[in-house]
């Protein structure tokens, strides 16, 4: 009876896990669709839409633009020198809850620009300006920013590691920007990539977290950073520096600020490392740090390839389930055999009781044999139960492993699809910009052609008076003079004849 109960429990759990496997993928899609529906507009402290700006001077009202940063086709560009843009308004609600997000792109390549790790770098800053060096064109030693600061610096460069390094200072030290001095870092390959990257920093006093994400993937998270209540509101900005010998160019596309946690800041699509969440002051790596680097555009699989691999995984799981079913059938046969032997033993014991009721000299050897059979059957039953428990544990482990692999596959698929969508969106935006530029050039050519036609018509209208003034009038005057001369000659000839 115990074996049958365990078998029924085993079948019931199998059914539950099978149904859960059919439901879980749809739940992930529902959550994703709900998060996409909740669009959160950036706050007023954000950088304006650069596509609508005509010149860098349009930012002067709310931003301090320093050094050699330029505006070019809807993006802020830093090349061959240093540049910076700092918000004149400070980060409100600094000690409570906020989210800040920077979208950037680098044109650098590992072949040409990897050697400029000490000079090339882009930094996002959150500092207390009252306890830092003044923000001006002179304090640009730290990748376009101050060398001494009170707050946080999020530096993107290739020194020691390609990726992001997080530095914290109290305004009394000059940091060397090494990994040893950082409070956290994560590696990601921003070189050899035409796709923009999003760096998101979020803080919540109530949730007790300080989090950094790269393209919605968790890079760094800790509950040890708590901003004091009497802290001044942070000054924030972006700085960068490029060596004159380097061909790398930094493009700043967006800088958005919210006074609360956004949905993307709360939800992490994936981890930047191989499943190891880095808490407190630990390093998180995004990619396998091998010497051979493959650009992100080459490692993206097509949807057809992902679909093929998904089908192969389903077939493999079906084969494992079929093999598990065969083992379950063997266990069923063994349990049936044990049940049959137990029933036979029960009948023999009943007959033995009726036969010994009047005869106390029952053969003790027969009784010993019966007890030995009982012991053997009990041992077999214990072995069967143990095998069943092992099978159940293996099945549970397999389900958990497959469930984990499924979640990881869904997360990777979401990440790759998001990357492709962003790449396509950026390509579309670039195409739109080029079309707008072409239309502007076309309008300018049409305007110049129209002005040329108007000038030609004006010249034709002025030509006739000029001809009359400078040609016909002298001719008429000459004819008049010639007529007078001829008349005088004829008059003189007549006068001479009369004489």
From TrEMBL:
What GO molecular function terms would the record report?
D-mannose binding
Q: Which Pfam families match?
A: Lectin_leg-like
Q: How does it sit in the membrane?
A: Single-pass type I membrane protein
Q: Which PROSITE patterns match?
A: L_LECTIN_LIKE
Q: Which residues form the signal peptide?
A: 1-22
Superkingdom of origin = Eukaryota
> What Gene Ontology terms describe where this protein resides (cellular component)?
COPII-coated ER to Golgi transport vesicle; endoplasmic reticulum membrane; endoplasmic reticulum-Golgi intermediate compartment; Golgi membrane
Question: What is the predominant subcellular site recorded for this chain?
Answer: membrane
**Where does this protein reside within or beyond the cell?**
Membrane
Swiss-Prot/TrEMBL keywords: Membrane, Signal, Transmembrane, Transmembrane helix
Q: Which Gene3D superfamilies match?
A: 2.60.120.200
Please name every pair of cysteines joined by a disulfide bond in this record. Answer: 186-219
Q: Where are the transmembrane segments?
A: 467-489
Query: Could you list the residue ranges forming a coiled coil in this record?
Result: none
UniProt key word Translocase: no
InterPro entries per the UniProt record, alphabetical: ConA-like_dom_sf (IPR013320), Emp46/Emp47 (IPR016710), EMP46/EMP47_N (IPR035661), Intracellular_Lectin-GPT (IPR051136), Lectin_leg (IPR005052)
Q: Where in this chain does the record put each L-type lectin-like domain?
A: 37-260
Q: What is this protein called?
A: DEHA2E01914p
Origin species: Debaryomyces hansenii (strain ATCC 36239 / CBS 767 / BCRC 21394 / JCM 1990 / NBRC 0083 / IGC 2968)
Q: What is the lineage of its organism?
A: Eukaryota, Fungi, Dikarya, Ascomycota, Saccharomycotina
